[in-house]
Amino acid sequence: MKLGVILSLLLLAASSLALRSSPSPSRQQHWLKSALLKDVNGGTPCAVCAVLTGLVEQLAEVHNTTVTQAIDMLCQFLPEELQDACTAVVKAVAPAVIELLEASETPDVVCYAIGICKNDTGEFCRVFPPPKLDAGESIATRIGKARSRISPFLAMKKKSGIDLFHDVLIDICKIPVIERICNGLNDHTPVEDGDGDLFSTAGTLRGFYWRGKDCDDSNKDIYPGRHTLDDATVDTNCNGILGVDPATNLTYESEWCDLSRRQMGTIVLGDSASAHFHIPPSWVTSKEISSETYKDLLFALENELDWPMLSSSTGFMNSSWPTSITGKVDSTYLRLRELNLCNHKDYQSIAWNGARAKDMAKEVAKAFGRSRLHDNPVFLTLSLIGNDVCSGHPNMDHMTTPDKFYEYTLETLKYVDQNVAPGSIVIGMGLVDGRVLYEILAKRTHPIGSLHDDVTYSTVYDYLNCLQISPCFGWMNSNETWRNRTTERAFELNKAFKQVLANNTFENFKIFYIDPPLPNAIKDWMKMGRPAWELIEPVDGFHPSQAGNALTTELVFQILAQLDGVLPPPNPNNAKIKAKFGDQGGYL
Ligand SMILES: *[C@@H]1O[C@H](CO)[C@@H](O)[C@H](O)[C@H]1NC(C)=O
Ligand SMILES: *[C@@H]1O[C@H](CO)[C@@H](O)[C@H](O)[C@H]1NC(C)=O
Ligand SMILES: *[C@@H]1O[C@H](CO)[C@@H](O)[C@H](O)[C@H]1NC(C)=O
Ligand SMILES: *[C@@H]1O[C@H](CO)[C@@H](O)[C@H](O)[C@H]1NC(C)=O
Ligand SMILES: *[C@@H]1O[C@H](CO)[C@@H](O)[C@H](O)[C@H]1NC(C)=O
Ligand SMILES: *[C@@H]1O[C@H](CO)[C@@H](O)[C@H](O)[C@H]1NC(C)=O
Ligand SMILES: *[C@@H]1O[C@H](CO)[C@@H](O)[C@H](O)[C@H]1NC(C)=O
Ligand SMILES: [Ca+2]
Ligand SMILES: [Ca+2]
Ligand SMILES: [Ca+2]
User: Fold this and answer.
1) How far apart are CA 359 and CA 555, in angstroms?
2) For 85, which of 3, 194, 227, 438 could close a Cys bridge (C-beta 3.0–4.6 Å)?
3) Residue nearest to ligand 5 atom 7, measured at CA
4) Is the peptide bond preceding residue 394 cis, with omega within 30 degrees of 0?
5) Cβ(122)–Cβ(112) below 8 Å
6) In the predicted model, is pLDDT for residue 400 greater than 70?
7) Residues 447-472: pLDDT tens digits?
């Protein structure tokens, strides 16, 4: 029954989770559950309550309806599967919310009054403008007054013993539609994979939006990236190149794709930035909410709110989801494919929201599908741009130390070395200097405040810190000392990364360290007369946007072009491949 609210909770919760370290999924509690149940001043449920209540209030204003009608409208806009559930939940909490909103209480006060936001630290965590207090009134007495207004509701809630936002969330992964999503989120490998080769014929749940589509899901020796010179009758590497050239009696694979062409698969081992985390701003922009707004919601959740198929590393298509995401796509994969069409479909995004160096070494890296003996070499990017310094509420204990970072990075690279074919390339991307985020966004208006221009990113950042659910306490912080400290550690970790490279040699790949090109990307963008904020995700205020992803690729390739022996040469047979095989079977 509570599905609608839960889903909305999920997506907002995930927004505050994206770059944050999450407990390993192998732990008993599902990371999603534990994150949602985090409980300082009400944590994520408090934030979700305030944002949803705020949206309802704004919708009523935009459409000149009552609060009740606005709630109904929001439920109707959700995907059909969720509407009944939404209506049912709403019946449970709506009377109290409606009563308080109609008495002009702010969404933050409403959520304290109904008990979802809690008073653990004494602070009043608010994202919307503060209530106008009467003379002599304190925020605590105001909340008390709101409570007494809805005392019948609170008494009933107490009697029934149902704590909607807690009891329900504990069982969140048992609900059918959610179960699929939870299971998918529990692993970094495809949920549907008939032959266990780590490639899928499904799209979401870590399927072909993440790694090239399996062209035979009943044969584990047929998958993208496999090295072959054969493929006379069966396309064993799924690149669409197949058959024998009657002029020579050689297979097209051996004639046009032989090893001297340096075929390479694209792999990224990374975090939410690599996976291209994105929450459509229209989801939280009251003026834009319509029956179209949430139609990609389930799809997005099944992809963990990531859009790897449009990302800077493994993007391979233009957006087919125009209400949710638009913009130019450019990627490492597309560029390697352009150099050599034999690389078609050979991409893997092994990126995980919240990953830090330890997760990468112990778990995430092991999810890539590659055989040193049977597969082509890879062009692999290892990119953890911030989680190792981002947590810390509010001390530095949770930041990874340079020694540990060195150890974990080396462990990851050793694993890679054992599993990739000789001639591979690894690009080690350093941590970013996240101070630019605050500089660019602090004074701008967040989408949830766009109706009245009354919620800045600075307010949102401090709000998330108040609830201790920020994806990056240190950089998304109005305290400059903290922003500086976070950057200091990031630079120390980059130094450790370079030391790993200086002190070690690897058998099967050459490795190059590069600093993240974000600062230069911003400069370039502004030179083109464009505002810097366009490069940053509007809802989370943290990740690179679609434009930021495409520009990152451009700049990374400018750097790589300067380095000797990194980029493979173009395949002189590309035109012939294109003429004979067209789009090589596409991707979907
Ligand atoms: C809003 O609705 C009310 C009653 O339904 C109506 O009286 C009022 O004129 C409407 N306002 C606008 C701006 O449409
Ligand atoms: C929380 O409780 C403390 C102590 O009772 C009080 O001083 C403070 O104003 C309360 N804060 C809120 C937001 O209710
Ligand atoms: C290809 O093989 C066929 C049958 O084995 C043979 O008849 C033909 O002459 C060969 N063509 C070339 C170009 O070698
Ligand atoms: C995306 O669209 C642009 C413009 O139409 C086109 O040039 C480009 O090839 C497309 N990219 C992909 C990956 O299909
Ligand atoms: C900023 O944070 C530092 C470190 O916690 C603290 O010492 C300082 O007082 C804070 N500054 C402000 C203006 O809050
Ligand atoms: C933060 O760092 C910048 C640049 O390194 C420096 O100019 C500024 O004074 C520092 N601020 C604080 C509060 O430490
Ligand atoms: C790696 O090399 C640096 C000097 O480049 C040295 O200071 C450091 O101790 C070495 N670290 C390890 C773990 O070998
Ligand atoms: Ca498979
Ligand atoms: Ca297969
Ligand atoms: Ca083939």
Assistant:
1) 28
2) 3
3) 481
4) yes
5) no
6) yes
7) 999 999 999 999 999 999 999 888 89
